[in-house]
Design brief:
By secondary structure, this protein is α/β, with parallel strands linked by helices. Among the domains are: about 280 residues, P-loop containing nucleotide triphosphate hydrolases (Rossmann fold), CATH 3.40.50.300; about 110 residues, Helicase, Ruva Protein, domain 3 (Orthogonal Bundle). It contains 24 helices and 17 strands. The strands form 2 sheets. The protein has an 11-stranded mixed sheet. Strands 1, 2, 3, 4, 5 and 6 form a 6-stranded antiparallel sheet that branches. It is elongated. The protein starts with a helix and ends in an 8-residue tail after the last helix.
């Protein structure tokens, strides 16, 4: 796998450079140059199975699938051979291009311990090898007869020397262990022989490579080369008929073949580059890959672990694939102004210029909409959710407001909290109403004063003034000025929940208007939205059904307890549907106290990987994909490091780079870029 292959995969998915705005085209140029410099040549393995079995092709593929091994029928192209023809000279074969080839095989008698990675060093050599593992399985009857014969031969060892008798006893002990193993259900006896084809440009290099192969296999290899005619048997369509090799029970064979199956390198090239795995192989992701069950991603990481930086990096690289980006920025440190006004739009919430209307319609059903508003008003301290009378009064008021809108099909011109307060005042002044109802209505109207004419009126008392058109390729909602958790955690959660609902409705309007551009939504501090069960249920439902709208959602938080939120009466955490409907998970540095939660929520993670989390360096993460599990080092370019860094010392350098980019674009850089 070469850098050119990764570039070709990127071009297959990316928007043509001529259709990109100048700033994004400049970024694409920087990205492709980084790929050429960063991606290393990676050798990967192809595994083929030739089997003499009564099971048909389809049945064999289905059986392999039950063990987690994906397989497809061998097509017309066949197995890629190292050469087509050549001339034999005993243990050497010379091809028309003057390359020399030879075969080295494993010994018939083996000793030592099998381990799951014993073949990995062989496959990781810096020159290609072709290996054949021949397996012959004995029937139960033949296996019993063979072991009985060997046991008899060892028992009546003629030599009286101590060494011969010790060897005979060792053989009898091994045979006893094999018999005990064969007594297990599903176990059998096999003969195994490993053959390896090695080639080189000259005899000297070939001899060196053969010695390297013998030293890295992990099995005892013959010190001589086998006849080169064996190559024809190795790559023949028929399985070998000769039963010769080392005796292995089924569990030993599973370890040996598992060593080949477990050696793999990612070969996906269609998408954007995230970084490299522990084998320095490139990790390419496309969050909108149709093979994935969802387009969603969960990212966990402590402050300073590289969580937010990696998320922005991944999103910005998807921008070159024609994806529209929507970012909720809780820190206020995302500055993508270098993209230009035609690409980038930023709205700052929490100011008098950016109001959010609690009554904005975020649901298609009126009952769900009323429930959502009641939950928000409960978070604002207007209504006590446990007071059934207060809830009933507000439910009636909200139905009076929303019912005409639903009847007329109007979802844009939504009243504000002033309408709710006026309706409550009318109930409080209604002499026909029960005194208790009038009293409660008066108290509710007074509780709204803070949000209609009081200190919070600029945020809640007006129609929504935030630009939710989503007409730009990148839209950032800066929520850093919203009340902090220590100042008013519920206020922040209420505003964020309304904002997320407004964003989802804006996406639906886009889709109804015929816009089919894929959208990627990033929500940090996701745990804030998981505190209230009603809001959490709404967000989880939007998350679960996002794929149907061609929307991918990236949610991030520091740890699992924060992301999952509190548990309800049944013990189910509000955020559990988020994890259940996620295709990709990135886990950065976690505190040692969080490892138990990681084990519980991600049971497929190996213990060795979990133990690394507390000491994981910034920019390194565990990546769990639908078909893979990797430890990845994120690889940004120098340009991305500057423009995406949140460190104060990088801001001046970033501004200088952005100014330089702006000048180059204004000078007509677009005319010379591909």
């Amino acid at each position: 796998l070469q850098a050119e292959d990764v570039l070709a995969g990127f071009h297959a998915e990316a928007v043509p450079g001529s259709e990109l705005p100048p700033s994004v085209r400049f970024y694409a140029l920087q990205y492709k140059e980084m790929l050429r410099q960063t991606v290393q040549t990676t050798r990967h393995m192809r595994l083929y199975l030739v089997m003499d079995s009564a099971i048909g092709e389809l049945g064999l593929i289905q059986m392999l699938g039950t063990y987690g091994v994906g397989a497809t029928p061998l097509g017309a192209v066949g197995i890629p051979l190292p050469f087509v023809r050549g001339s034999l000279q005993w243990n050497r074969l010379t091809t028309p291009d003057s390359r020399v080839w030879s075969v080295v095989r494993s010994r018939l008698q083996q000793s030592g311990v099998l381990h799951p990675r014993m073949l990995h060093r062989l496959f990781a050599l810096d020159f290609p090898v072709w290996a054949s593992l021949d397996i012959h399985t004995y029937s139960q009857q033949k296996a019993t007869r063979l072991l009985r014969e060997k046991d008899t031969s060892a028992r009546f060892e003629k030599s009286a020397s101590g060494e011969a008798q010790a060897a005979a006893n060792a053989v009898r002990g091994a045979i006893g262990q094999l018999r005990q193993e064969l007594s297990r259900v599903g176990s059998a006896l096999h003969q195994v022989r490993l053959s390896i084809v090695v080639g080189a440009d000259d005899e000297t290099t070939l001899a060196q490579r053969l010695e390297v192969v013998r030293g890295t296999v992990g099995m005892e290899m013959e010190p001589w080369e086998s006849p080169a005619a064996e190559i024809g048997t190795m790559f023949g369509a028929e399985p070998p008929r000769a039963a010769e090799g080392s005796l292995l029970p089924s569990h030993g064979l599973a370890i040996l073949t598992g060593s080949a199956l477990s050696y793999r390198r990612r070969t996906e090239t269609r998408g954007v580059y995230l970084g490299t795995d522990r084998n320095q192989a490139p990790v390419i992701l496309n969050l909108f890959d149709d093979k994935n069950p969802h387009y969603n991603t969960v990212i966990l990481g402590q402050s300073g672990s590289g969580k937010s930086f990696t998320t922005l990096l991944l999103m910005l690289r998807h921008l070159m694939l024609g994806v529209r980006l929507i970012i909720v920025d809780p820190q206020g440190n995302i500055d993508l102004s270098w993209l230009g006004e035609e690409v980038y739009h930023r709205s700052i919430l929490g100011t008098s210029e950016a109001a959010i209307n609690v009554l904005d319609i975020a649901h298609e059903e009126i009952a769900n909409q009323v429930g959502m508003v009641l939950a928000c008003l409960g978070m604002l301290g207007v209504v006590d959710p446990s007071d059934r009378l207060e809830v009933a009064i507000l439910d009636q008021v909200l139905m009076d407001i929303y019912a005409p809108l639903w009847e007329r099909g109007e979802r844009e011109a939504v009243p504000t909290l002033h309408a709710v307060q006026h309706r409550l005042d009318d109930i409080a002044a209604d002499e026909d109403a029960a005194p208790e109802i009038r009293s409660k209505a008066s108290l509710l109207a007074f509780a709204l004063e803070q949000y209609t004419v009081g200190s919070r009126a600029a945020l809640f008392g007006r129609p929504t003034t935030v630009d939710l058109s989503l007409d730009h390729a990148v839209t950032v909602f800066d929520v850093s000025r919203l009340p902090k958790e220590e100042q008013g955690g519920n206020l922040r959660a209420a505003l964020l929940s309304i904002l997320v609902g407004d964003i989802n409705q804006a996406i639906r309007r886009k889709r109804r208007a015929g816009d089919q551009v894929p959208m990627l939504v990033f929500i940090d501090e996701m745990g804030v939205l998981m505190r209230d069960s009603v809001i959490a249920a709404h967000v989880s439902e939007e998350y679960k059904t996002a794929r149907s709208r061609r929307v991918g959602m990236i949610v991030a938080d520091q740890d699992l307890p924060s992301l999952l939120g509190p548990a309800d009466e049944s013990g189910l955490h509000h955020g559990e549907p988020i994890l259940a409907n996620t295709a990709n998970t990135l886990i950065f540095n976690q505190k040692a106290g969080e490892l138990a939660n990681v084990r519980e929520r991600f049971p497929d993670l190996p213990e060795a990987m979990i133990q690394v989390l507390p000491v994981m360096r910034p920019g390194t993460c565990l990546v769990q994909l639908p078909d893979d599990l990797l430890q990845v080092s994120v690889r940004p370019s120098a340009f991305e490091l500057a423009v995406l860094s949140s460190r104060l010392q990088d801001r001046a350098r970033a501004r200088a780079i952005i100014a330089q980019v702006t000048r180059e674009v204004e000078e007509g850089l677009e005319s010379v870029l591909p």
